[in-house]
Design a protein that fits this description.
The complex is a heterodimer of chains A (264) and B (504).
Chain A (H helix, E strand, L loop, with lengths): L1 H10 L21 E3 L8 H7 L5 E4 L2 E5 L7 H5 L6 E3 L14 E2 L12 H7 L3 E7 L5 H8 L12 E3 L8 E5 L4 H13 L5 E5 H6 L21 E3 L6 H11 L17
Chain B lengths: L13 E3 L5 E2 L1 H13 L3 E10 L3 E10 L4 E9 L2 E3 L9 H11 L2 E3 L39 E6 L11 E7 L2 E8 L7 H7 L2 H8 L7 H16 L5 H29 L3 H22 L8 E2 L2 E2 L5 H27 L1 H7 L7 H7 L3 H5 L7 H4 L20 H24 L18 E9 L2 E9 L5 E7 L2 H11 L8 H8 L3 H5 L1
The chains are: A alpha/beta (264), B alpha+beta (504).
Bound molecules: iron/sulfur cluster.
């Protein structure tokens, strides 16, 4: 017992200073991707064909990145022989809309804080129910990690609860398959209004690596309106945390990413 | 066991498909049953469409003592006499064959859906009535004083979906039925149909906590078929990544188990040390689970000299902190009292069901792909294999602690003396046509098996994936009767099986 207390004392505080301190990542960390169109050749179609995901979108106005489809794999960047696609070490990329994840440069407008009643209700205490609907288990592992002493989600008043009746919203992971569709819908309906829906990971956003399977609905179905989209495969715990804190208005000034230039 | 194929099948060697004997079903059946009776293990048993009406059953057997594998097959139509009554190791495999290929193993003692999906490996000329995914024949026990407790698929915590149905008398569990399939994503079909670069990412997403293990098995099979040789350096980096994954998982689970019995100091420390191991994978590969690292031909990221030195420092610190926290935890009487005698898997059940990994070693079976069918760096550097006898939560916990210590030693040694060589050899060539390759890996849960068969053009005709959870979910069901419902979370954590890996 005494030994235990001594170790506890010597162990000190292990919780990250984030969001008040810096979030640091090693050099190879694959955070928010970027697209440098000035390096593009004439062969975007070939790049798209080589891609292991549908992250590179070819529109009438040129190529764009869909962060919601990105699998954050080195093979995606390698698909462009001109080096136009790269990963930054920026972990922030959660948005308030699905369309907000599509960007000509890689820059996105980060999620905005809830307003009015929702902010008053959830800003200081947010209880979430996790629904896993056809995942690989990776995204959940990172949600679990958010609860450890390093990330310590509870210090922000955010908690995962055992019943949808006790929850303010659901956090969905997985590609949404037929075997979980009903359970997802029922859980959503069991959460009292007003409620939030948070889609975490490439699977929940657009099907992820399983998007082409007949067992995938391509992510959270239209009937369940999503308030926060968190890209990643899986997202780093700080990417999820950053998104949640923005939604609750706990990270705001000075840290919002540059606006994606509209119309491009 | 006789090697029926003439050319020996071994871990990561491919053989011509024509060399796999196609025997009459009676001979196939007795061949497998006799081999397993003589001590072989059923590594895989699956079906593939063969022509427009027939299904080819393929069995892969392991002779662990000799480090050899064997493959045999038979052609069947819509039904065949089940192996399970005489070979219980086949029980889940035959449920899977029935579901994937719409073939009935007649006489299977408990044939029920495995993942609840329409057949996805049906011969082209056959059609079957639509599958009702909600129609599940639940087990029932009748009696005035008995009750059922159903849990899932949406759980109280952040847990993958599965349904557990306890039949209990008061708090005491008489029977536990586990219904899975909620994570089914159609992984095998994707691996069989997607382009190689996309299939690789699916292979990394079979089980999100076993990214390295499954990527290693997938690449192992493709490298055998593509005749790709990796440098010693690539092999060493891959082995190091696999052990990092094992460390993260074992340490994390020891923390989760401590959390379940409210022993907070160990839960906190182990949870943090798990993060240290994941962060080493992050430093190496850019992802906390090692996604993007293992690729055909080697590894996509090399270990730089500074990185190696920093990794050794972190691992040395982790080893010291782990030793202190584990000493505290395992010497606490309150911990021992909660772990001992709970969730016992009897050793005859372990043998009959063909359990794998730490769950089998905790029942006294020294089964480990790293020493039985060594590959890559494990052929040169041996990790001593530990076993325990009791088969309970305590045995599984102690064993994982030992494995953490041995993996740490191995890792520090490997990283200190990484051999030279290129990180990644060219692996862009075609796969050999009409060959069968088997790749086994000792993932942190136990034996991962990927069996890949190519067609006449060298495209993938069948990809059969087995996560160790496929065997070991039955162990959890077998461990519960006689325990109280409240012991379930602890018992469950001591195995920590993958839903995604099982459900594919
Ligand atoms: S997004 Fe990636 S990590 Fe998350 S569940 Fe899907 S495959 Fe797994």
């Amino acid at each position: 017992m005494l030994k235990m207390l001594r170790d506890r004392w010597l162990g000190g505080t292990r919780t990250l200073r984030f969001p008040n301190g810096p979030a640091e990542f090693p050099e190879r960390f694959r955070g928010r991707p970027t697209l440098d169109r000035s390096r593009c050749g004439d062969d975007c179609r070939d790049c798209a064909a080589r891609m292991p995901s549908t992250m590179l979108r070819l529109g009438p106005h040129g190529p764009a990145l869909d962060l919601g489809a990105a699998l954050f794999s080195p093979d995606e960047a390698a698909a462009c022989p001109h080096g136009a696609i790269a990963y930054t070490r920026d972990h922030r990329m959660a948005t308030g809309s699905r369309g907000g994840l599509v960007t000509p440069t890689g820059e996105v407008e980060l999620a905005r804080a809830l307003e009015g009643r929702a902010r008053r209700l959830f800003g200081r205490s947010l209880k979430l129910r996790s629904v896993v609907a056809g995942s690989c288990g990776g995204c959940e592992a990172e949600l679990v990690a958010l609860g450890n002493v390093v990330f310590d989600l509870a210090r922000f008043g955010i908690q995962f609860v055992a019943s949808p009746r006790h929850a303010d919203g659901i956090i969905v992971t997985g590609t949404v398959n037929p075997n979980m569709r009903l359970a997802l819908e029922k859980t959503y309906e069991a959460v009292p209004d007003p409620r939030l829906v948070i889609a975490v990971g490439a699977c929940a956003i657009g099907g992820g690596p399983f998007a082409d399977s007949p067992e995938s609905a391509g992510g959270v179905p239209d009937g369940i309106p999503v308030d926060l989209w968190v890209p990643g495969c899986p997202p780093h715990p700080l990417t999820v945390l950053d998104g949640l804190l923005r939604l609750l208005g706990r990270i705001e000034t000075g840290t919002r990413g540059p606006r994606a230039r509209a119309g491009e | 066991m006789t090697v029926a194929t003439g050319r020996a099948l071994r871990n990561r060697r491919s053989i011509p498909w024509a060399a796999v004997p196609c025997r009459p079903i009676a001979a196939f059946r007795s061949g497998v049953i006799d081999a397993v009776g003589a001590g072989a293990r059923l590594v895989s048993l699956f079906g593939l469409a063969d022509g427009d009406r027939e299904t080819r059953l393929v069995a892969v057997l392991a002779d662990d003592a000799r480090g050899e594998l064997d493959a045999t097959s038979a052609r069947v139509e819509e039904r065949y006499p089940a192996l399970t009554p005489e070979c219980p190791q086949a029980h889940v495999f035959e449920r899977e064959v029935a579901e994937q290929c719409a073939v009935t193993p007649e006489g299977h003692p408990w044939l029920k859906p495995l993942r609840r999906h329409p057949p996805d490996h049906l011969p082209s000329g056959r059609s079957v009535p639509p599958v009702d995914r909600e129609d599940y024949p639940f087990f029932r026990i009748d009696g005035d004083e008995l009750h059922e407790v159903g849990v899932g698929p949406v759980h109280a915590g952040i847990i993958e979906p599965g349904h557990f149905r306890f039949h209990a008398h008061g708090e005491r569990v008489l029977f536990l039925e586990i219904v899975l399939g909620y994570q089914h994503r159609g992984v095998e079909r994707l691996l069989e149909t997607l382009t190689p670069v996309r299939a690789m990412l699916v292979a990394e997403s079979i089980a999100g906590d076993t990214v390295i293990g499954h990527a290693e098995a997938w690449c192992g099979a493709l490298e055998a078929l593509g005749r790709v040789h990796k440098s010693p350096r690539a092999q060493a980096v891959r082995a190091a990544a696999l052990e990092l994954e094992r460390l993260a998982a074992h340490i994390g689970d020891l923390g989760a188990m401590a959390g379940d019995i409210a022993y907070a100091p160990a839960a906190a420390t182990f949870g943090r040390l798990r993060g240290d191991c994941l962060n080493l994978l992050l430093t190496l590969s850019g992802n906390r689970y090692g996604r993007g690292l293992v690729r055909p031909g080697g590894v996509a990221f090399d270990v730089t000299a500074e990185m190696a030195a920093a990794m050794v420092d972190v691992l040395t610190r982790v080893a010291a902190e782990f030793a202190r926290a584990a000493d505290d935890c395992f010497s606490a009487e309150s911990v021992q009292a909660r772990y001992e005698g709970v969730g016992v898997v009897p050793s005859d059940v372990c043998r009959d069901l063909g359990l794998v990994g730490a769950a089998a070693r905790a029942c006294g079976f020294a089964r480990d792909v790293r020493s039985d069918h060594p590959w890559g760096a494990f052929r040169y550097a041996h990790i001593p294999i530990a076993t325990a006898a009791a088969g309970d939560v305590a045995a599984r916990a102690v064993l994982r602690r030992l494995e953490v210590e041995r993996s740490l030693e191995f890792l520090i040694e490997q990283i200190r003396a990484l051999p030279r060589g290129v990180a990644r050899a060219d692996a862009g060539g075609p796969l050999a046509p009409e060959e069968l390759a088997v790749a086994l890996v000792e993932g942190w849960r136990g034996e991962i098996a990927h069996v890949v068969l190519t067609d006449e053009r060298g495209a993938i005709r069948r990809a059969k994936i087995k996560d160790p959870s496929f065997h070991n979910w039955s162990a959890l069901a077998a461990a519960m009767p006689g325990n109280t419902i409240s012991d379930f979370p602890l018992c469950n954590k001591s195995f920590n099986l993958s839903y995604a890996g099982h459900d594919l």
